[in-house]
Structure formats: structure tokens, C-alpha cells
């Protein structure tokens, strides 16, 4: 791995590697759930069984092929720690071979007010595009003010959850999620959300701003857990880590698609989207429980990096998952010439082929952090025009001191870090992590 830059102070690069391994030589991720075989899409019916201390994840599942198709089942996986998942037998089968058990959620009716102890809300075939309508039919929730929904084709997998604020966890607001496909700003599938209040029947958004849960291309059909273990947090969710634009072509076998990590949500009430507004925004933190991870290793703290003075970290003896945290600073008194693309880049090289790498970095005059996943020897990456190679997100300093503005980036590479075809999860959020 190589760090290269035009005049950046590298305040710190820390990495943590866990030797968690599977017995496969394939590209199967280690901490992102994948089914043993077959096709998977949306997570469904997430809930926590407090009696057993077990987390349940269901998902849209076609065990007979690695592409979506009927009959469609609810697959099932369980976990004791929200990191390691055990694939379980199929949980719900459709009535007929030409139909599906579509996306839905799970509600435990503790007081048995419905007369069913457990309620499954599942979309039927006719309601494929109208999850919101199903929610209204069942619970009769209505929206009090019109929301500024991004105009897309299909709206599905709505969710409503109380999320604590970061500034005061005893205070919370309600967040409504909606999945839209196609219609994402970056193309294909994405998740939109609204922040507001909920009185048991009516959700009222605080404003009509359109907010995006994740600016990356692979975060769809977010669902949150019904009931949680409070030591992990109260608002926890999983999304499908793919995009309908290319999900059917991703080169894995004998399974296709993975889930995101579990993310813990909170609301940041101080984020300023622009000088005129103060907004409440969702913040997400990954949940990772890896007991055999090594200690954080610190590299090159307080180094001034230039293009000529780059820095490389040799991780060639390591396999498993790689977590990293990059902290860097820009000297704000030095004006960076716009004619020079001034970037701080990390190049994760493939061991076998120096031409194969994953690049990410920051560009000072754009104040944006980017990811470039286009340099892989896997044909699909080069040939699929929808597999967006480059993504970026606004990155704001978490601290300014003297002449320096400090930035922080956290990332996780899952599976053998040296051949970079594995699952990459970056937090493409609007909010700077402090
Ligand atoms: C290897 O993985 C497969 C699939 O998860 C599992 O069935 C098998 O028991 C594993 N074998 C060993 C030796 O761990
Ligand atoms: C990744 O590396 C492993 C271990 O060297 C190897 O078995 C596997 O074939 C590699 N995968 C790709 C896609 O190069
Ligand atoms: C698909 O898989 C299910 C579950 O394994 C099985 O019951 C069913 O017969 C299969 N259907 C077809 C058409 O292969
Ligand atoms: C579904 O398909 C499987 C495999 O082709 C077949 O064995 C089974 O009888 C079919 N079931 C129904 C209800 O049509
Ligand atoms: C169940 O009923 C009890 C007693 O009426 C009440 O305090 C509690 O809030 C109810 N729980 C739920 C989840 O509605
Ligand atoms: C819930 O209520 C229904 C209808 O009154 C009843 O049949 C069922 O046994 C109750 N479930 C539990 C767990 O008490
Ligand atoms: C839902 O609310 C609407 C409008 O208030 C009402 O007409 C309808 O009967 C309600 N449906 C249920 C199932 O309560
Ligand atoms: C919830 O809000 C709606 C719209 O403001 C109102 O009509 C309804 O009576 C409220 N319900 C409760 C239980 O306060
Ligand atoms: C959006 O919200 C603002 C402030 O609440 C309001 O003035 C405006 O009319 C709303 N716009 C729409 C299209 O609803
Ligand atoms: C980095 O440099 C600053 C200022 O020279 C110093 O205060 C700080 O201790 C250094 N940090 C490390 C990790 O060396
Ligand atoms: C990798 O392991 C080999 C053999 O143990 C050792 O000689 C080499 O120094 C190690 N390389 C690094 C970068 O740790
Ligand atoms: C920032 O740049 C200015 C102008 O080149 C220089 O005088 C100052 O020492 C720099 N600050 C730091 C902390 O490097």
C-alpha cells in the first residue's frame, strides 16, 4: 500500500488486521454476510431475540440460481455478535413455484394487541411497487406533510424508526427510510430518508429536504432491527450491498450478493449543509466484533507527504480483513493551485499484478474524498458500464488548529487484502466523522 500526495501532512495512518479466514480460496467476504449458495437481495424481517441472545436476518433468496428468479424464498441467517453470521435453512417458501415471498418486516407484538404474537408484513406480488401502501393498509399510518421524495420509478422497503441524537442520546427523533430504484443520483438503487416526529399514526417530517443515507453505489433496501440489545445501540440496520444496475453480473460463485455491515445510527443535530441551514442528519457507525484482530498499527505519523516523498506500508504478509483510519491535514495558508490536481492517494496494490490496485484519496480544492475501484483484473469491472468506478463525497475537517485543517477517513477491506476484488465498505456520508 502506497500513500502519495501533493503537500499533505499525514497526521496518522493506522491499520488493524484480523486473521479471520474461511476455508475457501474464493472472494467470499469474511464479515459481510453472503449466503452459502444462490441469489440474495433485500434484507427482511430483522429482529433480535433477547431470550436467546440471537440476531435474525432474513433476506430475499433464490436458492436455485445466482440471479433473481421465482420461486423466491425468505432465506435466513443468525448471529450472536452482529459480525459472524450462520446461514440457516430457508425460512419462508412461496405458495406456488411461480410466485415469491417478497420483502417484508417483522414486528413482535409484546402485548398481543393484534391477536398475533408476531406480525409479518410481507409485500405480495401485486404490491411489489407499493410498500408504503401496504404499511398504510396494515397500520394506517399517514404522512402529515408532503415529502420531497426523489422522483424515481419504484418506491419500496419503507421503514420508520426512533433514532437517538448524538448530542444527547436520551433525546430522539423519528426517521423514515424509503428505497428508490431506479432513480439514485449515482444511478440505480439508493436509500432516501426523512427526519421528523411520529405520534403513533402520523409521521410529520421536520422539513422537506431530500436526504441520502449513503452516497456509495451499493447500499439499498435498508432495514432496521425490531428490538435490539441496548449495548449495541437502539437503531441498527443492514442494507443490501449491491445495485440493481449490475447486481446480476457481479463475478462470484456459487453465490451472488452480500449484505452491508450492521450500522448503528444516530442523529447529528449540528451538521450544517451550507451556511444558511442547520440540519439534522443521520450518522452511521459500523459494528464489528472481531476478537482476533491485531492491535492498531500506526504508520508515518507527522510526515509531510509530497509527490516525491511518498510513503508505503508493506502488508504483504497479512490476510483477512483490514480496517484503516487515515488522518491527514491540509495547510490552509498555502493556496493550492487549481491547475494542479492536489490529491492525497492511497494505492492498495495487488500482490500478483502491480497494475491492479484500488485507489482512494482526497482532493484539496474540491474538498472531496474519492474511491476508484476501476483498476481490477476482473473483466466485469472493466466491461460493465453501470459498475460505477469512481465515487466521491464531500469531506469536511473535524478539527482546525493553527494553519491546519484535519480530516479523517475510516474504511474496511473485507477478505484477502492483497487481491482487491473483495467487498469494500466506505462510509459515503455527508457528515464529517469527528
Ligand atoms: C468449509 O466451508 C464449508 C462451507 O461453509 C463448510 O461446510 C465446511 O465444513 C468447511 N470445512 C472446514 C474444514 O472447515
Ligand atoms: C486471491 O488470492 C488467493 C490467495 O492467493 C487466490 O487463491 C485467489 O485465486 C485470488 N483471487 C483472485 C480473484 O485473484
Ligand atoms: C428451488 O429451491 C427450493 C429450495 O431448495 C426447492 O424446494 C425447489 O424445488 C427449487 N425449485 C426449482 C424450480 O428448482
Ligand atoms: C415446484 O417445482 C419443483 C421442481 O421443479 C417441483 O418438484 C414441484 O412439484 C413444484 N411445486 C409446485 C407446487 O408446483
Ligand atoms: C404493554 O402494556 C403495558 C401495560 O399496559 C405498557 O406499559 C407497555 O407500554 C405496552 N408495551 C407495548 C410495546 O405496547
Ligand atoms: C394472542 O392473542 C390471540 C387472540 O386472542 C391468542 O389466540 C394467542 O394465544 C395470544 N398469544 C399469546 C402468546 O398470548
Ligand atoms: C385508515 O384511515 C382512513 C382515513 O382516516 C380510514 O378511512 C380507514 O378506514 C382506516 N383504515 C383502517 C384499517 O383503520
Ligand atoms: C397524530 O397527528 C395527527 C395529525 O396531526 C392527528 O390528526 C392525530 O389526532 C394525532 N394522534 C395522536 C394520537 O395524537
Ligand atoms: C418546504 O418547506 C419549507 C419550509 O418548511 C416551506 O416553506 C415550503 O413551502 C416547502 N416546500 C414544499 C414544496 O413543500
Ligand atoms: C506531531 O507533531 C506535533 C507538533 O510538532 C507534536 O506535538 C506531536 O506530538 C507529534 N505527534 C506524533 C504522534 O509524533
Ligand atoms: C513477511 O514474512 C517473511 C517470512 O516470515 C519475512 O521474512 C518478511 O520480512 C515479512 N515481511 C514483512 C513486510 O513483514
Ligand atoms: C503552513 O504554510 C505556511 C506558508 O507556507 C508556513 O509558514 C507554515 O509554517 C505552515 N504551517 C504548518 C503547521 O506547517
Automatic annotation (TrEMBL):
Residues 311-417 form the Glycosyl hydrolase family 32 C-terminal domain. Pfam families: Glyco_hydro_32C, Glyco_hydro_32N. One of its GO terms (molecular function) is sucrose alpha-glucosidase activity. Its EC number is 3.2.1.26. PROSITE patterns: GLYCOSYL_HYDROL_F32 (PS00609). Residues 1-19 form the signal peptide. Residues 32-117, 152-269 form the Glycosyl hydrolase family 32 N-terminal domain. Keywords: Glycoprotein, Glycosidase, Hydrolase, Signal. Gene3D superfamilies: Exo-inulinase, domain 1, Glycosyl hydrolase domain, family 43. One of its GO terms (cellular component) is extracellular region. GO terms for biological process: sucrose catabolic process. It comes from the Eukaryota. Belongs to the glycosyl hydrolase 32 family. This is beta-fructofuranosidase. It comes from Saccharomyces pastorianus (Lager yeast). The lineage of its organism: Eukaryota, Fungi, Dikarya, Ascomycota, Saccharomycotina. The gene is SUC4_1.
